[in-house]
User: Which sequence fits this backbone?
């Protein structure tokens, strides 16, 4: 048995109801590790270029890594991959924290593969190595919190049980619905919830007490202690650090003051009222506590409470920085209590907050510019700065009610439908995150080239370009950005295959990750080999996208960002220079026109 | 002449105010303004804004009109009327 793995994959066929155990292939584990890498390899092995998102053989793969559930800081994470995303047409991919990942391993499995479509709604229960499909028509239609409470109670062992599920948005096949676990954690992007909904799978419940032995326990403990020390001493990740104190929302003021806080559907990049929705204000007005994922010393999660007013919501969690931007500045909305409410609704309905906010912002601009006629809105006052219409738009989207059916298309198809595709701020159909790329050149290149579409955490260039970690790069400059974008993208692929939290990268580097992973698995790993593994994962994902027909034509930003300078504020006059950087990016990658060459694939052991 | 100074995250907790207007002289640099702020907010402020942390990360990052001062002239950056200076401790997110 390999260290750090249970050695077992659960293969679930919803067409036949058959469940079978498959042994984990050791060579595959060495090449792809786990999480994202292993999930992609599983999808690749039964790849079909004419796959459609809701076909029965669109695989949905829940994958832990060798770090998951070990005594390694932030090892509470897992990754979900699907063959084809309903949102982007690429391979689908999302990452989540909480406790579901480790609990799956304690239940006896490294990976769950779901194929087929059930005739009736079911949930999958995996308890101490015993898996079964349970008919659950009574759960269909329930919101995330309700179904989580119900299945946790049914388990009879609430402290050792974790539930991953979809809400109404996933059931209704909204292409940007997520898979939620532990109520508030989300594999949010690329519409994995809709794929799960298409399979009539409401939830996966995991529980168990199995311990997974690392290859070298003593060595792992030494290396984990060293990494823990670095995390605790680091001013960002330490116990009194910015992430613990303010959460990711600490970025609101910083990015705004950098002139890169997207406002009113990226029409502007500075929001004068940003401080009213900042991490500092969240702490002062609504924070009731902090919480972390399994095995995490950083504890960046927020517990919040809005006791009264039109947007009151009790004892909820969040919001994250991305959510504050998506429903806040991007929709021209200031009120923090409304943003907390919007976040809560998305958690309940199972929606990706970035894409939901980005789509509403796009709709607001379409209304503002007269593209969506008033009669389509049935009385909704969908305009920038109107918090109650923003909140109404969320539930309407999840249930495809009225204008919600159009919003549920996502911004790309919504803007196309109303004759103004240029108003969609998305890459490959996925709405852009909370950093305007015009004054931050590297993050723009990352957005354009990220395999899953508009994605900030594919290669988090904000770290060197704005936060100065691990080194400072001038955000306005294009020099060296292709090189750094590639390094961070491949590092992230390795981290997501391990699986640990990306936030550890503020304190740890490749040597620390490789050291801990080598101790867990017994694999011959060092910093260079781990980065190479990450490159293999990025390239495999790109190869599948190429086989779906994507190439350099999809590696582009919305025209607004490359042609319309920031109109005002600190970054006035800046535009994104992705077109000037992309050829160098491809050359450094060993790609031609967005496609890995045969030589590159051979070098990486893919072909 | 006056400049505008904004304090973020933990620096704001020390100053007790999110932003101030400060009267400076023509030719004053970021360095000079930091000395004024140290005398105004005391030792806690000085300790929180001087040197590096255990991991070698600078304790403070200073932006002048949205640009990190390192891409201007560092502490020697000269300020003019209406400039906005932002003081940021080491923080990150995602």
Assistant:
């Amino acid at each position: 048995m390999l260290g750090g793995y249970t050695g077992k994959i659960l293969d679930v066929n919803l067409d036949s109801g058959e469940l079978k155990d498959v042994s984990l292939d050791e060579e595959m584990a060495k090449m792809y590790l786990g999480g994202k890498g292993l999930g992609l390899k599983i999808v690749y092995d039964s790849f079909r270029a004419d796959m459609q998102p809701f076909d029965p053989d669109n695989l949905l793969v829940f994958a832990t890594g060798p770090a998951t559930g070990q005594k390694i800081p932030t090892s509470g994470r897992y990754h979900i991959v699907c063959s084809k995303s309903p949102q982007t047409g690429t391979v689908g991919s999302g990452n989540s924290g909480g406790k579901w990942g480790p609990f799956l391993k304690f239940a006896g499995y490294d990976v769950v593969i779901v194929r087929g479509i059930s005739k009736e709604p079911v949930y999958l229960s995996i308890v101490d190595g015993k898996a079964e499909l349970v008919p659950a028509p009574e759960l269909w239609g329930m919101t995330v919190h309700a179904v989580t409470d119900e299945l946790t109670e049914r388990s009879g062992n609430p402290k050792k049980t974790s539930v991953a599920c979809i809400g109404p948005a996933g059931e209704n096949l909204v292409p940007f619905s997520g898979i939620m676990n532990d109520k508030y954690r989300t594999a949010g992007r690329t519409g994995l919830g809709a794929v799960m909904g298409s399979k009539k799978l409401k939830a996966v419940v995991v529980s168990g007490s199995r311990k997974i032995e690392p290859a070298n326990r003593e060595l792992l403990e030494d290396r984990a202690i060293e990494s823990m020390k670095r995390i605790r001493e680091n001013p960002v990740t330490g116990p009194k650090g910015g992430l613990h104190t303010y959460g990711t929302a600490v970025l609101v003021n910083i990015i705004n003051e950098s002139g890169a806080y997207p406002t009113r559907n990226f029409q502007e990049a500075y929001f004068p009222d940003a401080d009213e929705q900042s991490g500092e204000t969240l702490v002062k007005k609504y924070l009731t506590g902090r919480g972390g994922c399994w095995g995490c010393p950083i504890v960046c999660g927020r517990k919040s409470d809005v006791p009264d007013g039109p947007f009151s919501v009790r004892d909820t969690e969040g919001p994250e920085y991305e959510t504050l931007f998506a429903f806040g500045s991007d929709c021209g909305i200031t009120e923090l209590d409304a943003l907390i409410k919007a976040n809560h609704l998305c958690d309940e309905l199972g929606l990706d907050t970035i894409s939901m906010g980005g789509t509403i912002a796009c709709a607001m601009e379409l209304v503002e510019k007269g593209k969506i006629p008033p009669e389509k809105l049935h009385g909704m006052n969908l305009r920038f700065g109107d918090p109650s219409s923003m909140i109404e738009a969320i539930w309407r989207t999840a249930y495809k009610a009225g204008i919600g059916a159009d919003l549920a298309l996502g911004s790309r198809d919504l803007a196309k439908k109303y004759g103004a595709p240029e108003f969609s701020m998305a890459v490959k159909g996925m709405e852009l995150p909370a950093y305007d790329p015009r004054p931050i050149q590297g993050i723009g290149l990352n957005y354009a080239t990220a395999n899953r579409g508009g994605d900030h955490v594919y290669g988090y260039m904000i770290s060197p370009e704005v936060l100065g970690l691990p080194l400072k790069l001038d955000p306005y400059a294009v020099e060296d950005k292709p090189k750094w974008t590639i390094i961070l993208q491949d590092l992230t692929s390795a981290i997501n295959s391990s699986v640990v939290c990306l936030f550890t990268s503020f304190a740890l580097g490749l040597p620390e990750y490789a050291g801990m992973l080598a101790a867990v698995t017994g694999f011959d790993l060092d910093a260079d080999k781990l980065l190479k593994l990450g490159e293999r994962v990025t390239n495999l994902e790109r190869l599948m996208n190429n086989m779906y027909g994507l190439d350099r034509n999809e590696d582009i930003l919305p025209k607004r960002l490359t042609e319309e300078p920031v109109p005002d504020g600190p970054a006035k006059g800046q535009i994104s220079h992705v077109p000037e950087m992309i050829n160098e990016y491809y050359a450094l990658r060993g790609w031609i026109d967005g496609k890995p060459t045969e030589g590159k694939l051979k070098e990486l052991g893919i072909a | 002449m006056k400049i505008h100074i904004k304090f973020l995250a933990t620096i704001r907790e020390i100053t007790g105010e999110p932003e101030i207007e400060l009267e400076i002289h023509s030719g004053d640099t970021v360095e000079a303004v930091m000395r004024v702020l140290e005398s105004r907010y005391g030792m806690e402020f000085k300790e929180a804004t001087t040197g590096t942390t255990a991991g070698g990360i600078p304790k403070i990052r200073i932006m002048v009109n949205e640009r990190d001062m390192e891409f201007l002239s560092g502490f020697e950056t000269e300020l003019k009327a209406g400039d906005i200076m932002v003081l940021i401790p080491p923080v990150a997110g995602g």
Summary: Residues 7 and 13 of chain B are 9 Å apart (CA to CA). The interface with chain A takes residues 6, 8-10, 12, 18, 53-55, 57-59, 61, 63, 65-66, 68, 70-71, 84, 86, 88-94 of chain B (CB under 8 Å). The radius of gyration of chain B is 13 Å.
